[in-house]
Structures are given as C-alpha cells and as structure tokens.
Amino acid sequence: MLNAFFTDYADYEYLLASSQLFLAMLGMGALLAPKDFVSEVRRPRSLFIGLGFQWIMVPLIALAVAALLPVPTGVAIGIMLIAAVPGGTLSNILTHFGRGNIALSISLTSITTVAALVTAPLLLQLMMAEHLPDDFEMPTMVIARDILLTLIFPLLVGMVIKVKMPEITSERFSKWLIRASLLLVMMMAIGASGSGRLNPQAYGAISIGAVVLFCIALKLASVAAALVTNIPARDGLAIVVEATFRNLSLAVAVKAIVFPAQSGIVDPIGDAVLFTTFLYGVISVFVTLFPVLYHQQVLAKTS
C-alpha cells in the first residue's frame, strides 16, 4: 500500500496540499476575534512596517538571491514562490512562545493572507516572468480561486466558529485541526521523498546554499528593519517570525497548480520547486527558533 502511495503520489499532491491548507486556516480562524486587531489598528506603526517588509523587502531579497547565485530555474522559481506567499499559520504560535506581540503577529498573518488573493498572483507574475518560457501563461485566476477557497473562506468560517463556540471549545477545535494539518504535511513530505522527487543530490550544494542564504537573509534583514525603525522588541520579534516563517502549504498548493505533477513523468522545474519549498520549511524552523528563544530568555532575565 505504501509503495502504491509513493508511485501515485503525484495524483494526491494537490489534494493533500489544499486539504492541509484548508484545515490549518480553519484552525487559525477559530483562534481569532475582532478584538485581536483593534490594538494594532490604533497604533499601526509596527503593523505598517511589518506589511511593508512582507510585500516589498521579502520579494526583493528573493530576486537578489536568485540573481546572484547560479541555481537551476526550478530552485529560483521555488525561492520566488516562497517569497510571494504570506506568513505561515504557525508564526502566531512561535511568536506567542517567544513572548512577542501576538496581536501584531495575528494581524500580519491575517492581513497578508486575505491580501494574498491579489498580491500572490501579482508577485508571481512579476518575479517569475524572466524564468519561464515566453508562451507560458500564469494561471492567475486559478491561483486566486484556490486562495479564496483554501485560505480566506476557511479563515472566515473559523472566526465565525470562534464567536459561536465557548472559548475552550474553539481552542480545542483549533488544536485538533492544526494537528490534522501537520499530519498532512508529514504525508506530503513522506510521499514526495518516497517518490524520489526530493533528492538533494539532484540539485547540488549551490541550490541548497541558496535556500539557506535566502532564509538567513530574511531573518537578518527583518531584524535590521526592527532595529532601524526602533520599534518595541516584542513587535520586532513578531515581524521577524512572520517574515521568516512562510505559508509553505500555500506554496505547495500553488506549485501543484502552476506545475502539476504527473505520475511517471519527470518535471525538472516542478520537482525543483517542490524540493526548494520543503527544504526551506526545514531550515526556517531552526532559523526562526533562534530569535524566539533569545527573546524569551531576555524577557525571563529582565522580569
């Protein structure tokens, strides 16, 4: 049965990615309430800095890394795809763990998620143009449709559930949904690895180094932005985590739309995009933990 899953993994990739994304966003919505955004709207300086970094600096850093290093086309596109998607749903949990500004983190994730309906297809079109054949047509409307159905719709439904359910019930509901979504992520990683599409030797040290450089560059640039703008440390942590920890489930779902996998057919570009996405996911967990743990320790010493 496992061998059959590996053999036919390409047939399940899109379903797994979209289902995982739907569950994660539904779980995230079940933790949100309108009051979570009020405090940030009243003093929006850090919010504007975080949004500006997400929509301007992250894509520019991706373009710089892809231009400076001689990576395969698929790896360059993968880095740009990661830059085009919003922050990941677990960024709020990591910010909370590091004792950062959770309200700011939630606001950044929610706003960039809703805006992704427009920003993601636009950024993909702008950044990937020179890396794709002239006759390639970006499925912009399909990407926008999937963002609406798998990101925005479940997020709103989750927020309604939050209002209708007792708080403890909505929290448990969210916890199980997020656990289920993580299980699907594991299934995707296992399926892609077992099907032979995540072979590091196929891409070389330069490609791996480019993904590592991109992740570290995002972290350092976001730390610098927080320091230069002199925002509170709690706000800075939220922005750093949000910038580094991307919504890779959406990236995989978009990859499945733009470069759909087919059983028994090798796709050098699509497979490289998938490899880049999963590799970034592993690296970003470790890179994001450093500022989280550091901020947590600093607050523990000063409290």
TrEMBL record:
Question: Where exactly are the transmembrane stretches of this chain?
Answer: 12-34, 46-69, 75-95, 102-127, 147-164, 176-196, 202-228, 248-266, 272-294
Please give one Pfam family short name.
SBF
Where in or outside the cell it occurs: the entry states: Membrane
| Record membrane topology | Multi-pass membrane protein
Query: What keywords sit in the KW lines?
Result: Membrane, Transmembrane, Transmembrane helix
Chief subcellular location equals membrane
Q: What is this protein called?
A: Bile acid:sodium symporter family protein
Q: List the taxonomic lineage.
A: Bacteria, Pseudomonadati, Pseudomonadota, Gammaproteobacteria, Cellvibrionales
